[in-house]
């Protein structure tokens, strides 16, 4: 299913989805959609990898437990939409399920399969197997678009998803089908981003205009393109075309965390995923992540994840195999 990049991290083949046994509805630019209708009660793990998830709730109530960048729980109800990075595994369960229940993998099917209108829980699941998108989601955390608190953006998302439902009924020989589904995915993604910005309030009223926001995101994009470079606040500020002081202030206001803390957190997550994928030793991981010693790396890792790298790797392997 996967092949290795030069740095040893996995790359998904163009036609191979990151979830074993699932056929993508469409794969153009790596984006596809699936259905899920778990039976109550349920406890499922969303497999981790270099991709992002979009969960769109059609019916029922469920709980999403996210561990990274911060530990939190989100109760999802009909009409709610949430986007999360797949770089860390997440748990999806019914609110009344036993917290000690052993999770299994969420059963997903193609969009061509008609949804059971009587199923107590129904989801549309979108997957974008692109590391840059996953890392961007890791910076801001879950992108939550509730049905009631973000009505206009939510309405546009569900209108686009209705078009997706219509497309699923058309013959696969339709030449334009992949392009249309990709455009639907773009509409969903753009309106999720709009919702986040709208609920953070007007950037102009906070002293952060549109041009400034773009400049900060340009610096973040430069970091994401070369995450293991020796980034400093000065270097990031240069990418944004700002002074060091102004960049640090406006980065914190826009992202909610200081620049170095943010990029250190993302870099640790990336190296942690590589430890899982390639079996890097602690010493090798410390060197690649730019730490002066393995002891310094372990201290930073424990501060971020609350456990040693060895324990974290074992726990993640158990989660991804549905053992905890």
3D structure, described in words:
Helix 2 (151-168) runs antiparallel to helix 3 (177-199), helix 4 packs across helix 5 and helix 5 crosses helix 6 (244-255). The chain has 10 helices and 13 strands. It is globular. Mean pLDDT is 76; it is low at 1-28 and 202-210. The protein is an alpha+beta fold and 324 residues long. The chain starts with a strand and ends with a helix.
How would the blueprint of this fold be written?
Blueprint: E1 2-4, E2 10-12, E3 32-36, E4 43-46, E5 52-59, E6 62-66, E7 72-76, E8 81-85, E9 90-93, E10 104-105, E11 109-110, E12 122-128, H1 131-140, E13 143-145, H2 151-168, H3 177-199, H4 210-225, H5 233-240, H6 244-255, H7 259-278, H8 282-288, H9 294-305, H10 309-320
Parallel strand pairs: 4-10
Antiparallel strand pairs: 1-2, 3-11, 3-12, 4-9, 5-8, 5-12, 6-7, 6-9, 8-13
């Amino acid at each position: 299913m996967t092949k290795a990049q030069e740095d040893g991290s996995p790359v998904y083949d163009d036609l191979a989805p990151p979830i074993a046994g699932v056929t993508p509805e469409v794969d153009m630019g790596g984006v596809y959609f699936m259905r899920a209708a778990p039976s109550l009660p349920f406890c499922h793990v969303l497999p981790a990898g270099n991709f992002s998830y979009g969960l769109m709730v059609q019916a029922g109530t469920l709980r999403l437990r996210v561990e990274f960048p911060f530990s939190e729980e989100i109760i999802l109800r009909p009409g709610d939409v949430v986007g999360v990075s797949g770089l860390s595994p997440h748990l999806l369960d019914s609110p009344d399920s036993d917290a000690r229940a052993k999770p299994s993998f969420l059963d997903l099917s193609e969009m061509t399969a008609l949804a059971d209108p009587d199923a107590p829980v129904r989801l549309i699941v979108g997957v974008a197997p692109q590391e840059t998108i996953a890392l961007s989601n890791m910076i801001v955390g879950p992108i939550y678009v509730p049905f009631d608190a973000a009505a206009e953006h939510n309405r546009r998302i569900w209108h686009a998803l209705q078009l997706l439902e219509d497309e699923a009924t058309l013959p696969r020989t339709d030449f334009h089908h992949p392009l249309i589904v990709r455009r639907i995915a773009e509409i969903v993604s753009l309106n999720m981003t709009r919702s986040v910005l709208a609920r953070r309030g007007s950037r102009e009223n906070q002293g952060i205009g549109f041009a400034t926001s773009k400049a900060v995101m340009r610096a973040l994009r430069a970091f994401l393109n070369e995450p293991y470079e020796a980034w400093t606040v000065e270097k990031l500020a240069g990418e944004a075309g700002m002074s060091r002081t102004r960049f640090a202030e406006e980065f914190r206001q826009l992202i909610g965390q200081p620049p170095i803390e943010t990029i250190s957190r993302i870099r640790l997550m990336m190296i942690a995923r590589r430890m899982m994928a390639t079996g890097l030793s602690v010493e090798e991981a410390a060197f690649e992540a730019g730490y002066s010693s393995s002891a310094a790396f372990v201290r930073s890792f424990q501060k971020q994840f609350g456990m040693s790298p060895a324990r974290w790797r074992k726990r993640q392997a158990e989660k991804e195999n549905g053992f905890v």
